[in-house]
Predict the structure of Delta-1-pyrroline-5-carboxylate synthase.
Amino acid sequence: IRCWSNIPFITMPLSRAHGKSFAHRSELKHAKRIVVKLGSAVVTRGDECGLALGRLASIVEQVSMLQNQGREMMIVTSGAVAFGKQRLRHEILLSQSVRQALHSGQSQLKDMAIPVLEARACAAAGQSGLMALYEAMFTQYSICAAQILVTNLDFHDEQKRRNLNGTLHELLRMNIVPIINTNDAVVPPPEPNSDLQGVNVISVKDNDSLAARLAVEMKTDLLIVLSDVEGLFDSPPGSDDAKLIDIFYPGDQQSVTFGTKSRVGMGGMEAKVKAALWALQGGTSVVIANGTHPKISGHVITDIVEGKKVGTFFSEVKPAGPTVEQQGEMARAGGRTLAALQPEQRAEIIYRLADLLTDQREEILLANKKDLEEAENKGRLALPLLKRLSLSTSKLNSLAIGLRQIAASSQDSVGRVIRRTRIAKDLDLEQVTVPIGVLLVIFESRPDCLPQVSALAIASGNGLLLKGGKEAAHSNQILHHLTQEALSIHGVKDAVQLVNTREEVEDLCRLDKLIDLIIPRGSSQLVRDIQKAAKGIPVMGHSEGICHVYVDTDASVEKVTRIIRDSKCEYPAACNALETLLIHRDLLRTPLFDQIIDMLRVEQVKIHAGPKFASYLTFSPSEVKSLRTEYGDLECCIEVVDSVQEAVEHIHKYGSSHTDVIITENEKTAEFFLQHVDSACVFWNASTRFSDGYRFGLGAEVGISTSRIHARGPVGIEGLLTTKWLLRGDNHVVSDFSEHGSMKYLHESLPLPQRNTN
């Protein structure tokens, strides 16, 4: 028998067979029966006298939501002592003629002697009010609640244990939320009893062990322990090096230093961990999280059940590899080492990776074949995504050529001086290029993205975290292995990490202390989700690729169909494919217009008519639902405009600032279009498909950015660099440059060092 917090625990409960807890957070959404333990600091107000009503109402709302989803919810609550203390203080103040004290001044009220309030009396005065409050709150959601008070004796007597178990099961069967608390009105005084001394200190019983016991007795799937800290830290919270532990495993407690207990209550984090491990041993999953933080308390319970990365999750299954936090730290350290290498050494790594892509071609294609077969068997990928997933000999050869371009162009990317200024005599300032830090690149169905992005990160000296789609798991694994093999020639294997753990994308986007830039590569929905989820981390990319081609009245007949066919049909799933074709009104019912329509029909492109185009036709194609549609397939919208000015206005209103094209032989019209369209890429008489890092001569790209800050368009090495300032002086101080100082500012521009153009 183990004894924690005065409640005896039998190592393996008699009433429950040994179950198995959830191994991963993502499985918590399957939890059916859940216990929510509300710590004293969660239930009570900051002044430790009375209840935090707003916080409690939010918790009741979340519990009600989960209960109405068909789950079985139970609450182990504190708060009776705090509620009772509030009522008793009020009565004591009134009995001591508080009205007279108010008339004589607020200071006298503060100095009035209030006797020590005995905890059991406070509990007796507060239990009924606390339960009435819960009932009133749950009634708002058409849910009935029932109160159960327990003492230590209820766990000593086997019959009482069975009765308690039966009562709880019957309440759950009737869709009633049991609210359980220790009967503080009759329990022995807590140890040490000095905890009750003073007006501004309250003491309520520690319910951690009670919650764990009930969770295991009731064969609960999940125990959520809410306190006033974010979870379990590797050192006392508040210390400089304290880090939140995402997942805690049995045996890890030996390496953890526990801090002091919370501001109220008898339990500390050590008691919570012991109770959590005992529950975990009994087959109940446990999460310890913060229930007091105003930004998260309104959804902390539902976030935990949804599997989001909140608090500390207790698991018996320890992954074989490092955690994503550890990978982030490894990538940062590896990236700094990578940036310190000579440019020739970084280039040598990329050349080696290019060679491996061709030398290991058969192994790569075999792994890719497994991914394709699994995707086809499961039927979970549309045809455009299957095309993106597929690798071929020609694709690998193109990748190798692109990587060699990157290696050749990266010789002076990091540490390049872009500005030199002489501030004063012997005081010179330089602005030099440096890596951004750690990049997180999230990509779907595109294994060829992995070596491209890796090469760009290596060339720019950045650490890299890669999160690929599970549909390309086999391909990504071998490509990452080859990348690390290339990195190993200069001892920087850790600089590029592939995240293989079951991390949700939303959780990765919260690692603002580990990641400096997020680059999504995938569907517009993926990009929008990441932009929404990223908290404090910049996101580089575009959410949509709504690219336009405008056919002017002076367009060449020979060029029009070639450019439109290539823009739409060469690779319709690409983000730089044509989605909306704008036709000048004067071209309607001309041979050129007929050629365009015939070509699209031959290529089996489904046409959607814009509102204006539809008005010119007796029998028109299906009218477009939205002019802001990225089809990503052999479909496009045709709309009519009256002029190049109207074409520009249409693009600005419905486009995504990605890539837009004009086809015309009129140079003046073309220049107007090029100068006035506010997109990342604007072309004249060229296919939209040229909007690509490889075709621009960048070697490859990490993506196409439609942002107006930092990088725009296809992003190569330059887009993955930032700058820092280096100031070299000789005993210079600012006071020397004051009005009566001995020095004057010069601010002379100095010539830049000769660039290496080899």
